[in-house]
Amino acid sequence: MSFSDLGLAEELVRAVAEAGYTSPTPIQTQAIPAILAGGDLLAGAQTGTGKTAGFALPILQRLMAVRRPASPAPRALVLTPTRELAAQVEESIRIYGKYAGLRSVAIFGGVGIHPQIATLKRGVDILVATPGRLLDHQQQHTVDLSKIEILVLDEADRMLDMGFIKDIKRILSLLPKARQNLLFSATFSDEIRALADGLLNHPAMIQVARRNSTVEIIAQKVHPVDRDRKRELLTALIRANDWVQVLVFTRTKHGANRLAEQLTKDGISALAIHGNKSQGARTRALAEFKANQLQVLVATDIAARGIDIDQLPHVVNFDLPNVAEDYVHRIGRTGRAGATGEAISLVCVDEFGLLRDIERVIGRVLEQDVIPGFEPDLSIRPEPIQRSRGAPPPRSTGHAKNGNARAREPRGQAVASGQRGTEARRNGPPARGPRTGASSAEGRRGSGNRGG
Ligand code: AMP
C-alpha cells in the first residue's frame, strides 16, 4: 500500500516522500479514504500512530479540490489540548502541504496575540488552535469561524481531562452546521462518547492498536537505586553510554528545575520544561533539544504532552509517575512509528507500590537491573511521596474520571511475561514498599501548559 494508492494527489504524495515516509501507517490507511469520502469520523488513535498525517493529508486534498482565495475566515479548524501540540500539528500540516498552496497558522496562548491577528488578517485556510486562545480571538472579532468546512478535535480525551468541555461547546456553537467532523481520541470514556454522539453524524469508526502494543517494541528496564543517589546514577548512565537526546521525567516542577541545574553542574547540558516556564522558554528548550544542541530535557508529565520528536532514543523516569497510565504516555515518547527505543526507570524504595501499579497496567513485570556501585541500601525505610503545593486530591487508578476507560482496557501477556520478570527480579531488591496515596503533582487541570 502506498500513499498514492489511497487516492492522494501528487503534490501530497511528493511532500510525504520528502518527509521520508515510505508507506502509510494503519491509521493513515483507514482514515485517509474515509475523510476523502467526506463523512464524519471517530478515530481511536494515540500520538505516535501517525494520526496527524491521517487527518492533515485528506484535509489538504479536500481544500485543494475546491480552491478559494485565502481569507481571514479559515476553512478547516483543528482544536488541540496543548500549545505544543498545536505548534506541532501546524508544522506537520506545513510539511505535508508544502506543494498544496494553502495557508495554515497555529494560534495558542502564552505568546503575543498581535502577530496572530496580523497572520489571520493576511488570510488562512487551516487554523490549528487551542480552545482558550481561539475564544480570545473570537471575542476580539479577529477570527471568523463562519466558513469552517472541516473540524478536527485532536486528542479529545485530553481536552476533556484538561477541562475544556465548555470552551469546546462554545466553539461548536460558532461553526456552520453543515461541516465534516473528525474526532480523534486515545481513550473512550462516557464523556467522550457523549461528545461524539452530539457532534458526529453517522461517523466512520476506526480503532488502531493502543500504545500499549507499541510499548512491546520499547526496551524497558528498572534500575533500583537509593532515593538520594538517583542523580548520580543518571549522570553515570548518560556518561557511560554517551546518551544524547535524553528525555527525563520528574514528578514535580521543582524537581525538574533542580535536576536540570544539577546535571548542568555535572557538565551535561540540560534544561527543564514545565507549566511555570514561559511559552518562549519552553519553545526554545524544545527547539534546542530537537536540534541535538541540548543533551537532556527534563519535563513534567503535562509539559511533555504532545512533544513529538522522531525516534527519541532514551526516556528516563527519574521519578515514577503517580498515575500508572502516565507511564505508558511517557515511554511512548520513544519508539514512535515503528522506531525502537529505550525507557529506563530509576526506582527507589518509596516507589515500589507505584511500580506494581504500572506493571499491572502494562501487563508485564519489568526487568530489574542493579547497576554495580549503585546497589540500594536495603535498610533505608520508605517515605511517603511528597505532593507539591496546589496539586489536586489523590487520583486512584481505575476511579479517576477519565481514567476509567484506560483502566478497563486489556492487560495482555500478564502471565507469560510475569515469569520472565520474576527471574529478572531476583537480581534486584524485593518489590515491597508502602502504597502511596500521592497524586500527580502538576495536576490534571489548570496547568500552565493548558492551551490558554
Ligand atoms: P503522530 O502520531 O501524528 O504524532 O506521528 C508520530 C510520528 O510518526 C511523527 O514523528 C511523524 O512524523 C511520523 N510518521 C507519521 N506517518 C508516518 C509514516 N507513514 N511513515 C513514517 N513515519 C511517519
What does this structure look like?
With 452 residues, the chain is an alpha/beta fold. It folds into two domains: 4-207, Rossmann fold, CATH 3.40.50; 218-397, Rossmann fold (3-Layer(aba) Sandwich). The protein has 18 helices and 14 strands. The strands form two sheets. A seven-stranded parallel beta sheet has the order 3-4-2-5-6-1-7, with helices on both faces. Strands 10-11-9-12-13-8-14 form a seven-stranded parallel beta sheet, sandwiched between helices. α2 (26-36) runs parallel beside α3 (51-65), α3 (51-65) packs across α4 (83-96) and α6 packs across α8 (165-173). It binds adenosine monophosphate. Residues 21, 24-25, 28, 47-53, 308, 310, 336-337 line the site of adenosine monophosphate. Adenosine monophosphate (AMP) is lined by residues 21, 24-25, 28, 47-53, 308, 310, 336-337.
Gist of the model:
The chain is 38% helix and 14% strand. The chain has 452 residues and is an alpha/beta fold. Bound molecules: adenosine monophosphate.
Comma- or semicolon-separated keywords:
452 residues; alpha/beta; Rossmann fold; 2 domains; seven-stranded parallel beta sheet; 38% helix; 14% strand; disordered C terminus; binds adenosine monophosphate
